[in-house]
Specification:
By secondary structure, the chain is an all-alpha fold. It contains 22 helices and two strands. Among the domains are: about 285-375, no CATH class; about 390-470, 2-Layer Sandwich (Alpha-Beta Plaits), CATH 3.30.70.20.
Length: about 475
Amino acid sequence: MLPSLSLPTPPLPTVSATEKLLLTIIGLGLLALLPATFAADAWLAQMSLYAAMTLVSMGTLLWAARKFAGKPAGVQQDNLWLRSSTSRGAVAWLTAVVLTGFYVLLYWFSSPDEQGNFGFLNSLVHSLDPLSQAIRQRPSDQWFLYGTFYTLAILLMGGRALWKYRHSPYQRIRTASVMFFQLGFAWLLPGVLLAFQRPEYYFSYFWPLKYDYLFPGTVGYLLKDGGPGLGVFMVFWGAVMSFVGTPILTYFFGKRWYCSWVCGCGGLAETAGDPYRHLSDKSREAWRWEVRIIYPILAFIVLVTVLLWLGVAGTLPAWFTTVQPSSITLFSNLSPVDALSKFYGFAIGAVFSGVVGVGFYPLMGSRVWCRFGCPMAAYLGILQKYLSRFRITTNGAQCISCGNCSNVCEMGIDVKQYAQRGEPIIRASCVGCGMCSTVCPRGVLNLENGPRDGRYQGSQLITAESLRILS
């Protein structure tokens, strides 16, 4: 038996002194969050928070410019599995613990008391009071803190993505789009509506992702507090975009029009989650779990929405009115239907989309929520697979099996297998980010919105064309 040979691990490339300085600035900014969180003095906490945001912003943007501008244009996925931060090493686990811990504090330990104290995050929350007053004409709360951090992450890491993918017009425009929608529609506009004493409404989120927007209670609240003009428009906008706009746009462009261009969840995944996209599980078993989880979640929220409206109409099934709430729910003093909606909000809206969806980026990839839990992604996926013109065409004759396309697919699709066979990619889970096409060194993959005829005959068409050329 021949002795086994172990090849030495190649060393990581050296980091220049300038990059080290910029990374140190980012580290100092993160450290400044500690006095911002724990300082008893309000002025010190406020100055520390703004110093932290300034240092992190300046350091990140300058570091991205230094790291990517000095290299030739093109995607270089080097050393991802050698770095502790991107290979599920100690740094990745530490990052996951910090992110998960922050989300746990935010969702369950930051509700204000009668004195306006937000628990562990009180100093951080009130440090944003001046900014909140300027935009919303009211003091900050835990969700304004969350939205500010969320938006800042998309803007900063979006700046990084613009440098990294500067050679690709599609990636530049797509990145700019998610930055615009997050800043304008998901952060500024809802705050301005509050300043004018109107409901805080997110025009870039639709049912079933923003599941309560079509609940009877929310519809009534929007109509009452939004007024006869704006309130009616909000309800109309939510309903039309959910049931008319979404199918039409998905027919022409696939689910990418939303998941990769508009949605804040997708925006964070495509920017802040970009370093972790290669971590998504490409196995068939992972795909089976994806199907087992995401479609029941969609069915669950559809059922809850229908039951709530049946209850308002007085036509709720009799067995729902005879069962005692305490016998089927942990939420006391709630009807069975209301308990189901509260359970969905807790288990899916908070635990899955919030804590797991972002906290597990460094361990499971950047689209954990989009892939396994988002009901909007499931809804769009059904439309995309069976009713859309969108597909990714492949040219198997040009594929060199480098595997770059599969490596960068954050939705766990083994793109290389399709490319090798020359088959078009028509998958419900594909978000159309176009990264597989961007990293392909041979131009094998192309995002298309062509006629539906031939969507499933890509390999036959390519084979016939290849035979014609050879003959």
